[in-house]
Amino acid sequence: MNRKSLFLLTLVAAFALLLAACAGGAPAPAAGGEESAQAPAAGEAAAAEGGAQEVVIGFTASQTGKYNVESDRQTTGLQMWMDDVNNAGGITLGDGTVLTFKAVSYDDESNKDRVQELYTRLATEDNADFLISPYSSGLTAAAAVIAEQYGKPMITTGAASDATYKQGYTQVYQAYTPASRYLTSAVDMLTALDPEAKKIAIVYENSKFSTGVAEAAQAYAQEKGYDVVLFEGYDPDTKDFNAFINKIEAAKPDAIMGGGHFQDGSTFARQLNEKGVDVKAVTLLVAPPEPTFAELGDAALGVTGPSQWEPAAKYSEEAAQEAGLEWFGPSSDEFTSAYESAKGEAPSYHAAGGYAAGLLLQKAIQDADSVDPAKVKEALDNLDVMIFFGHEKFDTSEESHGLQVGHDMIIIQWQKDDSGNLVKQVVWPPAGATADPIYPIP
Amino acid sequence: MGEVLITSALDGLLIGVIYGLAAMGLTLIFGVMDVINLAHGPLIAVGMFGVYLLFTFLGINPFVALLIMAVIGLLLGFFIYFVAVNRVIDAPPLSSLLSTFSVNMMIIGVGTALLTTSSYNVEYSLGSFEFGFFRVPGARLMAALAALVVTGLLYLFMYRTRPGKYIRAVADNRASAELMGIPSTRILALAFGIGVMLAVVAGGLIATILPINILAGGSFELKSFVIVVLGGLGNPLGALFGGLILGLIEGLVPVVMKTTWVPVIEYALFVLILLVRPQGLMGAKK
Amino acid sequence: MKRLRFPGLWITLILVIGVGIIPAINGSASLRESMFTILMSVALASSLNIILGYTGYVSFGHIVFFGVGGYLGFYVISQHGWNILPAMLVGGLSAAILAFLLGATVLRLRGAYFALATIGINEAMRALVINIPILGGPVGMEMHFSEYKKYGGPMQALWMVYWSVLIVTVLTIVVSYYVKKSKFGLGLMAIREDEDAAEVMGVVAPRAKTWAYVLSAIFPGIIGVLFFFKNGNIEPGDAFRLQFSIELIVMVMLGGAGTVLGPVIGSGIYQQLRKVLLTSPIFKNIQLAVAGFLLLLIILFIPSGAVGWLRSKSVKLRRVLE
User: Fold this and answer.
1) What is the number of structural domains in chain B?
2) How far does the CA of residue B278 sit from the closest CA of chain C (Å)?
3) Who among A247, A263, A275 is closest to B254 (CB)?
């Protein structure tokens, strides 16, 4: 009996060791855990010395999975901002502390499961001082909970859905124009171009973001007297849009609005063209502003899309003065040419959004003259600034704290230049337009 | 309304033929060796990318590329059979489910590392054809025809050639087939190879008409389950029938209700048929 | 010294509880999150083991119970402000009822047919939820942050959820052990070996299978509520993720199907392995392929899993490991 219990004990001990080693091994040894409990204190101790301090920015990127195109661009933009600041010698605070920035990021596989675990890790193990959101509203909704739970300010970019900012969060700040204002200007443009147009079909991806956009657009269009003849969502995995296209043809709309993200949106545009659908205007989300949308060839011609930002967008120090706003950071041209020389392609708005997120954080840190989360949060609440990305200001009301209220959308359209190449033109609002809209689609 | 119904039905049937072909390999393998090949989806993706790469980088016509991929698919099938399936062929069903699933993970893993999960398009157009009010891209028509040809060839092979008859014999009763001198392991490998080949070919055809990504085979795998049950598990020709039904459902249901109800109907039908008529609408292998 | 009477149970429990309280000792939130994932997998895999390992029915879409329980539980919390405890009851109960109804029909199918049917049920359920507006439709539901304040703020809420998962996991293991040791469990294992023979010997197979199915559904239903409460939001794709269902089967097989300890060890190994692969610079891009390769090796060469293999190696181990 004695031998048996001894044997048992050994066995249990061995197992416990094994699992403890497993559990401890990958994420953190016990010491790391203790350190994380005192994370904020450690940061300030360094600041008090008046020397250099490294500010850790944590985020996840979708290196794999369905969002990887957009997410890669966003990360590139953010990284560019960080390099710019660090190469310029960092930020010097009032007390002489020089701040430099360091990114810690993980691959979230475009999968929500991983997002929360990784953001918790960023907030605790990696001692991230501030967080940037992942790409997409769905993943950001998951990350926002963690930011709030651990009280880490988070700038969201690539996450337009309104719902996330109506869940009582106080640490989350949206750089993008919210989904509810994505397509309203497309409706306005249609009204201006063709007072005769009466029927709109809205076909959208069943994701958080595009559903929010579509519902707001439907309400707005109906309010403006339009007849929404088709209002339907499709599964994010949809590859074959024929069923929808047949329905659209039966409903005979003047304009089609909708889409979702890049892959489904470009496929939708391609198949609309293949089927020869006869409508006067097609406005799709996310996909048209991407430079690669031009690969569709003729299917891209005439397609319009709302964009958060375009290289041609006219946001400058002068524009800021006119609007009576403070100007901050590089100009649109500076960002665009820097991006082009680094990446060999024009930046899309996802890249610009990544850069803008970093810039907003930098502005808030400078305003607060501190990296203390509470002070930076206060500075973000008071932020009202124009950057190359546009006007940025956050809602501070209790019910929708952090919602973007300053930034506006523009509309782009793919047109042909004199030599017959597809070019992206800004067609709305008229004040910032680089070309007149083509209407109806040829 | 009439026009919409006809257009939707025709569109549905055209894609349904391809669904049917995509499911054929799965049901063949199940019929012969009671193995549900969970690597089916990724193998469809292999076909997609094979055709994509051959076309885009070597400029080979997609339909020629399809022939090349068919041979590669057959060899790949042999390889997978001997590495992952042969040892577990007599084990409980769980073992073969998991071993083929491990192949699934390996293909997706390597594929994701090499190709990412982004979408690609085979930029191959055959113009459009118009039949009255029905307009169809030429590539879709060609793909559907090719799928019918492949089905016909499979039928000829299974019923008119000696290896085909061996496969059917092994499917019916492996022990007695062996007693008759049929080398059952080699025949099983052949059947698996052909099953994989069919998946790869189906993938290649899909690539000519729809955007592809490394995970795109997954949705065809799920559809294949439904088709296989509709047409009778283990009955390769029933798969064509199942595919047509599925295509019709996907074409016609959206005309009368929200498209998001389509999968509810599909899967409910699937479970229902399993329960009340597990041999499928067309009758299973036995 | 009193004789340890159920070593198979105690070893497993000491192991789970011992590892489960580590995050409390060093207070690390990050470790707690990792452990949460592992404990959740342990509970889900152990539940699955009751129908898969003991009864021999390959429930491929077992995640459907996690999804249904999670959805209904999250619904009453986020839309009606219920407390987490009654919501957990709702989750467990709804999963159990679903399993009971399905048991009466789907469990008639055997082998691959049953496996396929469970996939179909999971997919049908996912598609159905997308069409139910009060459950949020395709975009799911979000929970207002103030819900956490009812439990003393987010930190306390997270710890509370963690302890709840630990308790549910322990309960799952106890149930799993007693099922295995009971006459009921013997009946299940007889069904696994030969269902027709078992019926001849007096096992009422349909009833036994149904109850096994119900037992294996309750805990996933409860875990679903806890998981989504912690997440703060729920979407159809996350709740009915077939991939996760398959991963659970892998965990059970890794540790050893039909053993009490197996799913525990299997989940631990699987989740840690995944994490190491995902964060290692060499394997990061190809982690799925490496995991697949390891899985294949196990299926081909150690089909009885880690615990099954250990048991087959020594008589002593067979006596203490269940």
Assistant:
1) 1
2) 8
3) A247
